Amino acid sequence: MSEIKDVLNIFEAEDTVEFWNNGDIVPTQSLCRFLEERIVFNEELDNQYQKYCEDNALNCGYRSALAFAKSLGGVGLYGDGEPVAINTYNHENSLSQDIQYVYWEDEDGSHILLEVHQGGSPMGNYGVPVAFDVDEYIFMDNQGQIYCENCEERWFFDGCHFISDSGDRLNDYEITEEEPEYPWKVGSSKPISNLLWVDDGHNDHCPYCGTVLKFGGY
Ligand SMILES: [Zn+2]
């Protein structure tokens, strides 16, 4: 389990969510957990990439990763176009560390050469690219769910709003900094009040039962 974390030098991070009294909801996904659900180390491909860099006197980095993917006849997502280079710094995401990778598909499936940003300027300071097999969920880096461990209600993040299966939007609640009267009726189809309690620790409390809400993947 710790293999991906060590190989890529990923910092310790938990899945967390912060709530602000202006209604902002800021989720953070543990990069380690995110990747463990999506990628598998491909040693053979990794060796092949390193040999490619040596043979061509290239630095191991995103440019050589892109050239390598093309040299294998790799194509883009769903077989379209060319291999793609992604840096999560360039779009909204909720990962605990930014990542940069080249994604391609070939006869053997879908792969990435992945580097993890080690802090400081996003222009540099990435590790050495490492090869993994992957699925398209690698691109879904701004999703997840807020959930209540007590009453099992959950709100799914679409990159903008948190919405439950029944259409309840967490973002639409009126924020209160005072603790409302809990417990409200667990199991009712709708919360009894539209109040959402955000406490001093930027925790939000379940509108059904008052339990502190948590955030996790998918
Ligand atoms: Zn609850």
Write the layout of secondary structure elements.
Layout: H1 3-8, E1 16-19, E2 25-28, H2 31-36, E3 39-41, H3 43-55, H4 62-71, E4 84-87, E5 99-106, E6 109-116, E7 130-134, E8 144-147, E9 154-157, E10 162-164, E11 174-176, E12 195-197, E13 214-216
Parallel strand pairs: 11-12
Antiparallel strand pairs: 1-2, 3-7, 4-5, 5-6, 6-7, 8-9, 8-13, 9-10
The structure holds zinc ion.
How would you concisely characterize the structure shown here?
By secondary structure, this protein is α+β, with helices and mostly antiparallel strands.
Task: Describe this entry's structure for a reader.
With 218 residues, the protein is of the alpha+beta class. It folds into two domains: 1-37 and 143-218, no CATH class; 38-139, no CATH class. It is built from four helices and 13 strands. It has helices at residues 3-8, 31-36, 43-55, 62-71, and strands at 16-19, 25-28, 39-41, 84-87, 99-106, 109-116, 130-134, 144-147, 154-157, 162-164, 174-176, 195-197, 214-216. The strands form four sheets. The protein has a five-stranded antiparallel β-sheet with strand order 3-7-6-5-4. The protein has a four-stranded antiparallel β-sheet with strand order 10-9-8-13, with no helix packed on it. Strands 1-2 form a two-stranded antiparallel ribbon. It is elongated and about 70 Å long. Bound molecules: zinc ion. Zinc ion (ZN) binds at residues 148, 150-151, 153, 206, 208-209, 211. Residues 148, 150-151, 153, 206, 208-209, 211 line the site of zinc ion.
